[in-house]
Design goal:
The chain is an alpha+beta fold and 280 residues long. The chain contains ten helices and 13 strands.
Length: 280
Amino acid sequence: MRISRLTPWAAGLAAAALFAVPAAASAGQQRTGDARSATAPGTATTTATATATVDDYYAPAAGKTGAALKTALHDVIKTQSKVTYDGVWNALKVTDQDPANPNNVILVYSGRSQSKSTNGGDPDDWNREHVWAKSHGDFGTATGPGTDLHHLRPEDVTVNSTRGNKDFDMGGSPVSEAPGSYTDADSFEPRDAVKGDVARMLLYMAVRYEGGDGFADLEMNDKVNNGSAPLFGRISLLKQWNQMDPPDAFEQRRNQVIFDTYQHNRNPFVDHPEWVNSIW
């Protein structure tokens, strides 16, 4: 999955080309800063050009490791457009569209394909799940971390409530309406197919939000029961999940749509999952 001029970024482009992104999809955005641009999926641009575009995006991070890599990536991805919390509803209908049914979205923990029109607050509706629970750092639904599409996903209202603000760990009792997911008093385990997705979303948040824009400095640790502290765990397990469940076409396409259409920044760990071990 490493993106370089010797390894064409064919998988990501193929994934992006599976879907048409509506021209009006950017409704609900607030443009801040000088957002970077990239070639939209489905154009005739060559793979080599697209690869160079992504290489250029991450150029400040080239050759770095550890804390220096984390800092360089933060400086790259902090330049973004922001989506309002109301705007998140329509954005998720695009970013999480079911590849087999354009009228549906895929629910992250449940894995269920559900009509886009059933978003809301009733028990069988889907709502906006903050994978980095908004109480961890107390940012709520504020425009910024509270509306960042890189960690917001559609989920069944009941399952979302069951997950609550728990850290991620292994084990517990099966979660109703989320086959393959488990929970106990202080942790939540997602289904195998999205374990890596969850890890990369959390690690994105820990790099993007470093305390310099009015929000808490979000960091990883190896604990559960982090409560309202701006911390999330367990990092040792999340690193394992990143390796066992590498980015697939759905996750790659999602990253591209957020970049092209909404926030104009990327999740570096979807493009370079090997950077996880370089930093942590």
